[in-house]
Design a protein that fits this description.
alpha/beta, six-stranded parallel sheet, 6 strands, binds NADP nicotinamide-adenine-dinucleotide phosphate
């Protein structure tokens, strides 16, 4: 999402740098890239294909459908079955794939019965166009509703240290053995400020507050799969290095306790 223009609209300022970043993802051995047809729109998927196709065997390019773009920062929902099928065909074409490894419903559309939207993904799966189905921006009830229609392997919801509204969805994913993909994982808000708990811990681990925020997510749950967004090779490398930080159980608790009640959704 961060390899597009301002407002996630149009091309990035430096498309060659965006492709260098994508190639670095693969060089570093990362095996999951999250994108969507709506990022740009189409820009992110096109850049991924230009930089990385033919893809290494181990790489999963996860994409999403179900939102329209009407301008910078505008994301109206449209998850009608016929529209989702159109979205999926477009993603297959842009990503130059016969089958998408993980296709996610970007968000439930209040104008469309949720099971109809998920049912469209199930039909695409039956046709061999999707390998696995994921859903995004859902409640526990919607997760269970979706599971009655299809096998769901992942849920992508907003979640970070300072925004844990999806705690119950995370717990439901843990119980059901489903990956939980927190978007906006780095919105560390006030905790990243000098003197805050992340700042102190970061110094103790010779790390940055962003790295501690990611390490906390990874320590928080075995089903957690953070997808930090970045336009910078330096930040990419820094974020990957966060996987090597081991927080003790007391540090995990300290961070969680210190951030309780702090809300930051910038
Ligand atoms: N399903 C959904 O509805 C939904 C919604 C939003 C996002 N997403 C997905 O989730 C991904 C992550 O969300 P996000 O990009 O909105 O938020 P995020 O990952 O919490 O934050 C991204 C921002 O943090 C900065 N950043 C990244 N690494 C950093 C580091 N090490 N130190 C300091 N700053 C750093 C980036 O700037 P630089 O570019 O300068 O690094 C970028 O502006 C998106 O890319 C997208 O794939 C999904």
């Amino acid at each position: 999402m961060r390899i597009t223009g301002e407002g996630i609209w149009g091309p990035p300022d430096d498309p060659d740098e965006a492709k260098r970043l994508l190639r670095r993802v693969v060089e570093l051995g990362m095996d999951l890239i999250d994108t969507a047809d709506s990022y740009g729109p189409e820009v992110s998927e096109n850049l991924i294909a230009e930089a990385l196709h033919p893809y290494p065997d181990a790489l999963v390019v996860a994409t999403k459908g179900g939102l329209r773009r009407t301008g910078p920062g505008a994301w109206p929902r449209d998850a009608r079955p016929e529209r989702l099928k159109e979205c999926c065909e477009g993603s297959l074409r842009r990503l130059r794939l016969d089958r998408i490894d993980l296709y996610q419903l970007h968000a439930p559309d209040p104008k469309v019965p949720f099971e109809d939207s998920v049912g469209a993904l199930k039909e695409l799966q039956d046709e061999g166009k999707i390998r696995h189905i994921g859903i995004s921006n859902v409640s526990v009830e919607q997760l269970d509703q979706a599971r009655e229609v299809a096998d769901v392997v992942s849920v992508q919801n907003r979640y970070n240290l300072t925004d844990r509204d999806s705690e119950q969805v995370l717990e439901a994913c843990e119980r059901r053995g489903i990956a939980f993909v927190p978007w906006f994982p780095l919105a560390t808000g006030r905790l990243a400020e000098p003197g805050g708990v992340l700042d102190e811990l970061a110094r103790a681990h010779d790390a940055t507050p962003a790295q501690i925020a990611l390490a906390w997510l990874l320590a928080r749950s075995r089903v957690m799969l953070p997808i930090p967004g970045t336009s910078s090779v330096e930040h990419l490398e820094e974020n990957l290095a966060a996987t090597r930080i081991e927080l003790s159980p007391s540090e995990v608790e300290e961070i969680a306790g210190a951030s309780a009640g702090v809300t930051d959704r910038r």
